[in-house]
Structures are given as C-alpha cells and as structure tokens.
C-alpha cells in the first residue's frame, strides 16, 4: 500500500545533501550522480606534464526524504512513509471492540491494552498501575510533591498543564462546552462526552460478575470493590469502613 502511495503522489523522496540541490526519484540515479559529480575530479600535474585523476574528499551524504504534498522533510524513510499515510487518511488498523482506527501499529497495540486491561507500569510506593510510562511519571509526582504548574491569580498548583487550564476557567468563568439537548455546560470536553452518554443510554463499562453497567470506568472500579470486599476508607474514631470517601464523610458527621 505504501508503494502505491508513493507512486500515486509522485513523491521525490531521495535527494543529495543540503549543499547540493540535485534531486532524484530513485536511489540508483542518486548514486550515479554522487559518483560522477562528487567523488572524483580531474586535475593537471604541471610538473610531470601528465593528467591524473585524484580522489577528492567524499562529503558526508545524508538522505533527505521530501513530501510532494506539503513541505515536510525528514532523514528517516519510516517517517516519510508514516507522514504520507496522514495525507491519504489510510486507516490500516481497526479495533474490533470499538470504533477506534489508526495508521500506526504501535498506536493500535497501545489502544488494545485498554480492552485487555494490561498495565505494564507500576508504582513502587503504592499499588498504582498504568498502561503508559508517561502516566506513571505523572503519578510519581504525587508522592514527591512536585507541582510543576501554578496559577498566576491564586496559590493553586498542580502536576499537569491540563489541570491548570481547567482551573484557570474558574477565574475566567468560561464554560466552552455545552449540551445540545439540555442546559448542561462544562469546562472540559471529556465531561461533556460523559454527559452525552446519559442521553444516549450508552454504558461501555460492564461488570464480569454481575449485570452492572456504567458510563465511567471509575464507577466500575468502585463497583468491583463490592465483590472483592475491599474498603479503602476507614474512620479514625470507630471501626467503620467503607468503599467510597463520600460515605466516610457522611459517617464522620455522626461523631461531630
């Protein structure tokens, strides 16, 4: 399929180094150009009165791959091939479990981990596990107390830029996303997407033990604790334990 893309778009992907403007459509033509134009030169030996061929210093050659559709260029062939797929919107990999499609196998493998539940990265301090290394790096900041981003209006600090942008809307009062069915408005696109599932009745997450289904993954994780008997929140005054923090807060009111 990639060869068809290159042929259809007539992409001149081979070219000489930056100091030479010569471009060629094939590697063979490029090699001949270098051989005749750059590798040897004739010089005259005035002392001996003879003409000899001297081997000129061969410059370091770097292949540059160009896209004929836009100004993109790279020294890696794999990158130009990936780039070309974006132009023709070639969707090679399709998920059988959902509507996800992509052009890169690596992205597809990563996506499938969402369905299989594979989590290769784990925290060495707590039980947190995740799919991506970047998510683990962000999580570790919770333990180290590192807060990279800060608000210039108040003392708010956070770990991620997305959280800061979300916080800034409190000061600006901006709610950019709104429901076209009801009056719901929010500052985060993902919140709107979750809200819309209430109208469509879509519940993508389901329990493998009972018939429980829900909109959010966090709700499913909370539900699963009912089957495992896990209770993360406990009262420091009595022996009360519960699954959700809100239940603990309601319980604490009894002591006050």
From TrEMBL:
Keyword Nucleus appears in the UniProt entry: yes
Domain C2H2-type: 93-120, 121-148, 149-176, 177-204, 205-232, 233-256
Pfam family, one: zf-C2H2
Any one GO molecular-function label of the UniProt entry: RNA polymerase II cis-regulatory region sequence-specific DNA binding
Range of residues in the leader sequence: none
InterPro entries reported for this sequence: Dev/Hematopoietic_TF, Znf-C2H2_CTCF, Znf_C2H2_sf, Znf_C2H2_type
Keywords from the named record: DNA-binding, Metal-binding, Nucleus, Repeat, Transcription, Transcription regulation, Zinc, Zinc-finger
Domain of life, per lineage: Eukaryota
GO biological process entries: regulation of transcription by RNA polymerase II
SUPFAM superfamilies membership: beta-beta-alpha zinc fingers
GO cellular component: nucleus
PROSITE patterns, A to Z: ZINC_FINGER_C2H2_1, ZINC_FINGER_C2H2_2
Family: Belongs to the hunchback C2H2-type zinc-finger protein family.
The protein's name in its UniProt record: C2H2-type domain-containing protein
Organism, scientific name: Parnassius mnemosyne (clouded apollo)
